[in-house]
TrEMBL record:
<keyword id="KW-0560">Oxidoreductase</keyword>
<dbReference type="Pfam" id="PF01266">
    <property type="entry name" value="DAO"/>
</dbReference>
<feature type="domain" description="FAD dependent oxidoreductase">
    <location>
        <begin position="7"/>
        <end position="347"/>
    </location>
</feature>
<protein>
    <submittedName>
        <fullName>NAD(P)/FAD-dependent oxidoreductase</fullName>
        <ecNumber>1.-.-.-</ecNumber>
    </submittedName>
</protein>
<dbReference type="InterPro" id="IPR006076">
    <property type="entry name" value="FAD-dep_OxRdtase"/>
</dbReference>
<dbReference type="GO" id="GO:0016491">
    <property type="term" value="F:oxidoreductase activity"/>
</dbReference>
<dbReference type="InterPro" id="IPR036188">
    <property type="entry name" value="FAD/NAD-bd_sf"/>
</dbReference>
Length: 383
């Protein structure tokens, strides 16, 4: 089959790849093809908790979070299957260090927040155990959504922008003059710009292209609990314990965490939660919400995401001209990929970048070095 020329090739049809395609098309890149080996949203992007942390904090700056909120609200308006659930959210600290962190966070964000004592939390949300609580940060309107529907919405918008999607596995790359040739199971695609946005598989693909970036695949896990009685809960996070939770639209409780387990075999990975995580759920859930003592396990699953040494994603050009990466969002790729994709589009289009790109430069590490995987919950990495 003859090669096919495009202006840009995006490898990966999860939320990151789809958002990259949308932002690139809007930056004026005409002919874009997205290559996905399975189904769109079949990997991490379909398994996330769907918490849009850009409504709760501004990890990469207010402007970065705003870009994400604007894009996703546009998707919500454009795509019938997508609903945003708006809830109160509490970040709850159980140590003095945690309380200090919450106060810094309260001061540093433009998001509407309110710092509460344990007694104030008990007064407002009596479902929480508060004996060991040192402080809580209340966000009036946090948002979660179904990440699978969100990813389908991103694909629909990309399609409307003229992006084509091919279900083909990328196997190899060749650099040919100014173009990179992307070899797939069905043929090859040539383009001067190739973006690898393949989640946990990104590092392996970059290595096939002859370069390396500091990424390490790891798990994130979820348990869905059936509470014994109807229970009206807000969203919450317990940064001291690296766990979080939220209500589900059908009256259950989603409990997330289990984020530091490295993935050694990307292909032979079972999508169920691991025993240590389920033990953590059994221990922590009733400590946070005593009513969950008698909850039963309704469902559980695990997904693969990519970690970076400093918990900043890699967004930019690799040491191969024209080969870009957008990956390493750790546990927040649903939330932060609109901003990541926009930054990448700015860099490719030569526009003023939205934020200082040097913090995200994929060549800031050598690439092959080993590193520990940090806890996923925002608190630890921001300290
Ligand atoms: C349990 C869990 C909970 C999470 N909760 C949240 C949350 O609440 N909020 C949040 O913001 N983030 C959350 N995340 C993180 C978020 O899901 C990820 O950061 C995000 O989905 C990454 O998107 P991606 O497109 O990079 O990866 P993926 O969705 O994994 O997509 C990568 C795609 O690349 C494709 N691919 C791989 N190799 C090839 C190849 N050779 N050729 C072609 N295609 C290929 C794969 O098939 C896959 O579809 C969670 C993750 C998990 C697992």
């Amino acid at each position: 089959m003859p090669g096919t020329s495009f202006d840009a090739v995006v490898v990966g049809g999860g939320i990151v790849g789809a958002n990259c395609a949308v932002q690139l098309a809007r930056a004026g890149v005409d002919d874009i093809v997205m290559l996905e080996r399975d189904a769109p949203a079949s990997k991490a992007s379909g398994r996330a908790a769907g918490s849009l942390t850009i409504y709760r904090h501004e990890r990469f700056g207010a402007e970065a979070s705003r870009v994400g909120r604007d894009l996703y609200e546009e998707y919500e308006r454009a795509y019938d299957g997508l609903t945003f659930h708006r809830e109160k959210s509490y970040s709850i600290a159980y140590s003095d260090e945690g309380a200090h962190y919450l106060s810094l966070k309260d001061e540093s964000t433009t998001v509407e927040t309110e710092l509460l004592s344990a007694a104030e939390l008990a007064d407002r949300e009596p479902e929480f155990a508060t004996d060991d609580v040192t402080a809580a940060l209340c966000i009036d309107e946090a948002v979660y959504t179904d990440p699978e529907q969100l990813t389908h919405a991103a694909h629909a918008v990309a399609r409307d922008e003229g992006v084509s999607l091919k279900i083909e596995e990328v196997r190899d790359f060749e650099v040919e003059g100014k173009d990179i040739s992307v070899k797939t199971t069905n043929g090859s695609y040539e383009a001067p710009v190739v973006i690898i946005a393949a989640g946990a598989w990104t590092k392996r693909l970059l290595q096939r292209a002859g370069t390396d970036v500091a990424l390490r695949p790891r798990t994130s896990q979820i348990a869905i609990l059936d509470p014994p009685n109807n229970i009206d809960l807000p969203m919450w996070g317990a940064p001291d314990w690296s766990v979080y939770g939220r209500p589900t639209p059908d009256g259950r409780v989603l409990f997330g965490g289990g984020t530091t387990t490295p993935v050694t075999d990307l292909e032979d990975f079972h999508n169920r939660a691991r025993v240590p995580f389920l033990r953590q759920v059994g221990e922590r859930a009733p400590e946070i919400i005593p009513l969950l003592e008698d909850a039963t396990l309704h469902d559980d699953w695990a997904g693969r995401v990519s970690a970076t040494p400093d918990r900043y994603p890699h967004i930019g050009e690799t040491d191969i001209e024209g080969l870009y990466v957008c990956s390493g969002f750790n546990g927040e790729g649903i939330s932060n990929s609109p901003f990541g994709a926009r930054l990448l589009a700015d860099l490719i289009g030569g526009d003023d970048p939205l934020v200082d790109p040097s913090e995200f430069d994929p060549t800031r590490y050598q690439g092959g070095e080993e590193f520990e995987i940090n806890d996923a919950v925002e608190w630890w990495d921001d300290r």
